[in-house]
Design goal:
The protein has 234 residues and is α/β, with parallel strands linked by helices. The protein is built from nine helices and seven strands. 41% of the residues lie in helices and 20% in strands.
Length: 234
């Protein structure tokens, strides 16, 4: 992650309207964090998740290379740094990264940096876009290098030294919706705020229910949980 202005900040702003989607991600983070956890939000963006976690009294540190967004995070009361190199080694219990890894060419190198920040038995939570066939102008606009499959994401995380515990597709109906978007893609990469709200309110809750059946096969995104070896395991 290079320290430069992020080209997709307008899309980040629009995504704040995805209430159910954001609640799902925040709930997922909380499920894997104890009250005493020290947490790293890698690629924290505008602080969409780091700030609410801080307000709920979690000990969270944000890593965000964009200077403007880092200032916004700090204004929300969260400690914010520009890179993992500013974090103490082996000092965090949980690292999460939501829709970030797909932006990074050397994703294995980045995962190794996160591995170094975690204590033995520390947990990693990753959420990324799935399936290259779903790549659209929206991906291009925000600087996505790739989209993932279960196999490719697991391979990258394992290569960084983690043990993968669980990986599953998320938002199966979003897979179909994105295919439809791709058919009519005009190349602008812009998120339609009205369509986003309708999908979030009416379709995403149903999609989350169907994911219980479809999560092994397809979805718009991937959710992975992994851990760093305990000290006794080397």
């Amino acid at each position: 992650m290079q320290s430069q202005p992020y080209s997709g900040i307008d899309n980040l702003e629009v995504m704040q309207d995805a209430v159910n989607y954001n609640r799902y991600l925040l709930t997922t983070i909380r499920r894997h964090a104890s009250e005493r956890s020290r947490i790293v939000d890698f690629g924290a963006g505008t602080g969409q998740f780091a700030i609410p976690l801080k307000q709920s009294r979690f000990d969270v540190t944000a890593v965000e290379p964009d200077t403007i967004m880092r200032r916004r995070i700090a204004a929300g009361g969260v400690v914010a740094v520009g890179s993992c190199t500013e974090l103490s080694a082996a000092s965090f219990d949980l690292a999460y990264s939501l829709n970030v890894l797909e932006h990074i060419e050397d994703h294995v190198g980045t995962l190794r940096q996160l591995h170094a920040t975690l204590k033995p038995a520390g947990k990693l939570l990753i959420y990324v876009p799935a399936f290259q066939i779903l790549y659209t102008s929206m991906d291009a606009k925000v600087g996505h290098v790739r989209r993932y499959t279960r196999a490719s994401l697991s391979a990258a995380v394992s290569a960084a030294g983690f043990t993968v515990d669980r990986v599953a597709y998320v938002d199966c109906l979003g897979f179909l919706a994105t295919l439809l978007f791709k058919l009519g893609d005009r190349g602008t990469g812009t998120v339609n705020r009205t369509a986003l709200k309708l999908y979030d309110r009416l379709v995403f809750p149903l999609s989350a229910c169907l994911d219980v059946v479809m999560r092994r096969w397809f979805g718009k995104n991937l959710l992975l949980l992994a851990h760093k070896a305990a000290a006794a395991d080397g």
